[in-house]
Each structure stands twice: as structure tokens, then as C-alpha cells.
């Protein structure tokens, strides 16, 4: 009961911060997304690299922040799009810096530096294409809708999985995540589609209903894979949570694992149907 209370309070605080930051203005949005990027990457590096190559870890996080800010400037301030390519410069610096590492006994850990940029930084930088329209006007409601679909999937998966999935049906992928069940997966899918329908009916999702449903299904499926990918990382390194920033939930990485695949899926779908 105590853990459930902690989980509820910290989860509610997280939701409030996300909602407020997206609805207030583009600067609060940017501040929170940059913070999420930095914290997630710190947790990932702590999990996979520990204190090895700290200088390179800092350079990689700097590269991620620069990528986000250049994309932010391009979409929201008419910054020349061609200059976004400058975001790769710090990545080159990370690569060159690896040559000067004195201790190369665990040189393979350098691969984790680039993994975090692709796995964490790129998906969160892509949110700039959701919150700004072609004219550079800011509106955080679409990204908020994405988060609502992801949260609905997580809540549905948790409720159905804990109430029914642990007693009935088959496990989803027991060697990676022993608690996840197929019933939880179907419950999450049901809730995410329901959330998309409600968002459409209330006018927040202003696309055709069938597009909203298809997008919710795709985001739910990729969100489940995102969750499993992070679970595999944690299982490999024998840790339960990526961090402790959210009591009852774990770390930032634990809260955003689904979003790292679900958000790019939503962006790609909207690009494919030519509405973004």
C-alpha cells in the first residue's frame, strides 16, 4: 500500500510537470525536455558504463542537448535548417576523444555513448517536429496527446496485467520481463485506442478518426517494444530500476522507455500521411 501511494504521488507529479510544461509555452517545454534528455542519458550511462570514461559521457550528453536546441531553433525560430547538421560535431569530438582514452581495457563501452544518442536523444529531439507547425507557431497539445496515449497504454497494461495477467493467460516475454503478460498487452492496447478516440471526439486530435486509431495502435505496439528493450538492458546489467528520481516508479528512463519508440512512431505516421 505504501509503495502504491508513492507510485501514485510521484506519477501524478510527473504528469503535472509534463502537462504544465507543454501547455504554458515553448520555453517550459524545451526546459523539461532537455532535463528529461540529460537525466535519462545519465541513468543510461550509470547503468551501462558506471564511472568509466566520464569525460566522454559529458561530451555525449552535450551533443544530445545541442541536437535538441538546434532542432528547437530550426522549428521555432526560423533557424536555417542546414545548420542543424552542426549537431554532429560534438559526436565527432566524442569519437576522436575515444582515441585518447588511456585505459582501453573496456573500450567496448564506448558503443554505449552512441547508443544513448540514438536511443534517447534523437527521439526526444523529434518532439520539436510535433509542437511546432510549418510557420513556427508553438502548440504542445499534439505532443501531450502522444503522452496521453502512452500513459493510457501503461495504465491499461498495469491494471489488466496485475489483476488478470498474473493469474490467467501466458507471459509476454518471461526471459526479459517476467511480469508482463499478454492480457496486460491487450489491456494497454484497449486503453490507448480509447484514449485516442476520446482525444479525437474532444477535438484535440483533429485528424480523421481512423488515423487516430491506427496511430494509437502503432504507438502502443512500439511502446511495448520500447519497454521490453529497456527491460533487457536492466536484466543484462542486473538492476531493478534505472534510477530513483520517481519513488515507486524508478528512474526517468523507466518512465520514458515506451516513449522512446512510440513518439518517433507517431511522428513518422503523421509524416507518411502528409499532415505534419
| Percent helix range | 55-70%
Q: What structural class do the secondary elements suggest? A: mainly alpha
Please work out how many helical segments DSSP would assign.
11
Radius of gyration: 19 Å
Low-confidence stretches: none
Total of domains = 2
Question: What is the overall shape?
Answer: globular
Instruction: Walk across the major sheet and give the strand order.
Output: 1-2
List keywords for this structure.
276 residues; mainly alpha; 2 domains; two-stranded antiparallel ribbon; 11 helices; 2 strands; globular
How would you describe this protein?
It is built from 11 helices and 2 strands. The mean pLDDT is 89. The protein has 276 residues and is an all-alpha fold. The protein folds into 2 domains: 108 residues, no CATH class; 139 residues, no CATH class. The termini are far apart. The longest helix is centred in the last third of the chain and has 28 residues. Strands 1-2 form a two-stranded antiparallel sheet. A hairpin with a 3-residue loop joins strand 1 and strand 2. The protein is globular and about 55 Å long.
